[in-house]
Amino acid sequence: MASRLSLKVVPDYEALSQEAFEKIKRFATLHPQAVYGLATGSTPERLYQLLRTYIKESGKLSLTQATSFNLDEYSKLDPKHPLSYHTFMWENLFFEAPFKSSHIPNGMAEDLVQECLNYDLLIKQSGGIKLQILGIGENGHIGFNEPSETWSEGTYVADLHPSTISANARFFGGDQSKVPTQAITMGIGSIMAAKQILIMASGANKAEAVRAALLGKHTPELPASCLQRHPNVTWLLDKEAASLIRD
Ligand code: F6R
Q1: Which residues have C-beta atoms less than 6 Å from ligand 1?
Q2: Cβ(116)–Cβ(156) below 8 Å
Q3: pTM value?
């Protein structure tokens, strides 16, 4: 299969967000009924702000015929909790830019294994993800696919790596003991099934993960290295995140 890797380096986080916004605007205009895979976290915050503001103020774009699936959600955290990914998506995007239907795993489900199977089935029934938006963790994770000995497949319950708990403690007032230790996440197999992937990284703390994902070994120890084998990936980096792949 012909493969397409595109890599763009821009000066800073603002330029990165603008670039991603323009790409999604073009994509959404061409494919109003598309199915999106969405990420949470600091990286897409400005992108979502640009998107929701444009949708609300220009009247030129709408996602109301599109469908979204979020990558992940903490387990045992109420969807109404201020730090749940449900709350994040509602506040950052959905309240002003609603989709026809939006799906986020339910981390409070009584039977988490069944919840994962249902999530995969819903993605399948939607026709599959056309554009997957990703961030990358400092340890190279995507979704909550942490460094591991094997590649994951569909949606599953993941244990958060200690480095992820430490990185995400900033959202929980710096208190690591408040960070959930498990999450439901789409697996590497689900992510690789997306037709197109847009992965963004900003900041020097991501530089080593970006270098290893792009230029290192293809290994589940660096989950984002799976993208080396995806046929249509765009890496969007700011200068700092790209600092170890440049001369
Ligand atoms: C969030 C997710 C994570 C983040 C990653 C980077 O839905 O899937 O993999 O993309 O942890 O997080 P930030 O953007 O906060 O640096």
Answers
A1: 39-43, 71-72, 135-137, 141-143
A2: yes
A3: 0.96
